[in-house]
Amino acid sequence: MRRVTWFNTTSLTLGFTFLYLPMLILIVYSFNRSELVTVWAGFSTKWYGELIRNEAFLDAAWVTLQVAVVSSTVATVLGTMAALTMVRAGRFWGRTLFSGMIYAPLVMPEVITGLSLLLLFIGIGLDRGVFTIILAHTTFSMCYVSVVVSSRLATFDRSLEEAAFDLGCSPGEAFRLVTLPIIAPAVISGWLLAFTLSLDDLVIASFTAGPSATTLPIKIWSSIRLGVSPEINALSTILIAIVATGVVTASLITKRASLRLQAEERAAEQQA
Q: What is the reported pTM?
């Protein structure tokens, strides 16, 4: 086992401090009574109340929630289908191209993705709004879902499906009754990941949003250009809480599924 050295400990501590200390400071100052975000004047929750009464932020939050729910749901369906194709379809003509198109958005700069989608929507004459944002978020988030689900399908025991076929199930029934319940934790984790990515996206949404549709990250970006207000701190704290909850939930679901799989494998070995 590799020894833990002072260099590793110091590097890890500095890295986590650099990443999370600014978020902690933001959360603390969201409860600041003062209108100046850098001057502490006592504990108060009044900015959360002001945020609730801010209709512009509420409208943007509603648009963001709609986009995140719809796009993550569609991305989960398409990503699961893509994962099934990559894992179960075997070798077929164009497999390399198909896999490359699935993985390309993972490493593609968001500016390139947003600009290309903008040019596409302009070229086909599609007015930008909530629908175009949903299309854009579905395009890049389905790739993440595909990666998560395909990793689970790669370790799936096909003998369970074969047993279902022997008992008279059709391929559709075998998938619905056997495969889907087993890979459900990975599917749920993919949905939560897609939801989080859509909730946080700024770059792609700024290219594909129109005047009638403003997401919350765009609204925050527009507001801080005129100066950071305490309401922004409160809103950012709420977003951090939502995203952190989604990430932790996805991690717990994945870990629980992994432990369940290991327990099933040990039970099968003992029976054998």
A: 0.77
